[in-house]
Design brief:
Number of strands: 0
Number of helices: 8
Keywords: Membrane, Transmembrane, Transmembrane helix
Number of domains: 1
Shape: globular
Structural class: mainly alpha
Radius of gyration: 23 Å
Strand content: under 5%
Helix content: over 70%
Largest sheet: none
Distance between the termini: 60 Å
C-alpha cells in the first residue's frame, strides 16, 4: 500500500494568504464601523429634527443629543488614547454649548466659552501632526475675521464689551481651527502614516464649523430668520459628523 500524502503549498504561501485575509477584514471593519456610527448619528439628528419641528422649537436637551451621541461613539472607536480623550472632550463641550444656546436662561457668553473650549480641545487632538503653518490660509482667515468683526461687532463694542469679546474669541477660535486643519491638509503631516483624506475632511468640517458660529452670531445680532437658524443647525450637525470622521480615520 502506498500512503497518500497531501499536497503542500510552497513555503510561505499560506502565511501570506492568511495575512492578506486578515488585512482585508481589518479594512472592511474600519470602513463599516464609522459608517454605522455615522448612520446612527444621522438617525438621532433626524429624530431631533422631527421632535423640534424642523429645528424651529427650542429644546435644549434634544438639540444637544446628537453631540452627546458623538461623544459616546468616540469612546467606542479604536482611536489612540490621546486623540480619543480630546475628541470626546470637544464633543462634550459642543453638547454643553448647544444646550446653553437653546436655553432661555443661559447668557450667550457662557455658550461662547464652551465653543472656545471645543475648538481648543479638538485642535489639541491633532496639533502634533502639523508640519508647518500655511501663510495663505492664515491671511484668508485673518481677513474673514476682520470683516466679520466690523460687520457684527462695530456698533456693539462699547455697549456690551464683555459679550462682544467672548463672541469674538469664539469666532477667532473657529478661524484658528480652520488655519490648523488647513495647514495640516496643505503641508502634510509629521507622521508618515497620516491619512491625507482625513485631513481634507477635517478642513471641510472646520470651515463648516466656522460658518455655523458666524451664522449663530449673525442671527443673534444682525438679522434673525427661521431659515438662518435651520441652516445653522444643519451645518452644525454635519460639521461635527465630519470632524468625528476625520479623527476616526486619522487615529
Amino acid at each position: 500500500f502506498h500512503e497518500s500524502r497531501p499536497d503542500y503549498l510552497p513555503s510561505g504561501t499560506m502565511p501570506n494568504a492568511v495575512a492578506r485575509t486578515i488585512n482585508s477584514l481589518k479594512l472592511k471593519m474600519s470602513a463599516t464601523g464609522p459608517a454605522r456610527l455615522l448612520a446612527a448619528y444621522g438617525g438621532i439628528t433626524y429624530l431631533v429634527y422631527l421632535e423640534t419641528s424642523g429645528f424651529s422649537r427650542m429644546s435644549p436637551l434634544l438639540s444637544a443629543l446628537p453631540m452627546i451621541s458623538l461623544s459616546v461613539f468616540t469612546l467606542l472607536t479604536s482611536m489612540q488614547p490621546h486623540a480619543k480623550i480630546f475628541t470626546t472632550g470637544a464633543f462634550i463641550s459642543s453638547a454643553l454649548a448647544i444646550y446653553l444656546q437653546s436655553s432661555a436662561w443661559a447668557p450667550v457668553s457662557f455658550a461662547a466659552l464652551f465653543v472656545i473650549g471645543r475648538n481648543l480641545l479638538y485642535f489639541l487632538s491633532f496639533q502634533h501632526l502639523i508640519r508647518e503653518w500655511s501663510f495663505p490660509i492664515a491671511l484668508m482667515t485673518g481677513l474673514y475675521l476682520s470683516f466679520f468683526t466690523v460687520v457684527c461687532f462695530a456698533d456693539l463694542l462699547f455697549s456690551i464689551p464683555t459679550l462682544v469679546c467672548c463672541l469674538f474669541i469664539g469666532v477667532a477660535s473657529a478661524c484658528f481651527l480652520v488655519l490648523a486643519s488647513g495647514s495640516l491638509a496643505q503641508g502634510g503631516s509629521l507622521d508618515d502614516t497620516s491619512n491625507s483624506q482625513a485631513s481634507i475632511i477635517r478642513f471641510v468640517g472646520a470651515m463648516m464649523e466656522t460658518a455655523c458660529v458666524s451664522m449663530f452670531i449673525y442671527s443673534a445680532f444682525a438679522r434673525r430668520t427661521e431659515t438662518t437658524l435651520f441652516m445653522y443647525r444643519i451645518c452644525e450637525y454635519v460639521a461635527h459628523g465630519l470632524l468625528f470622521l476625520a479623527n476616526e480615520r486619522e487615529f
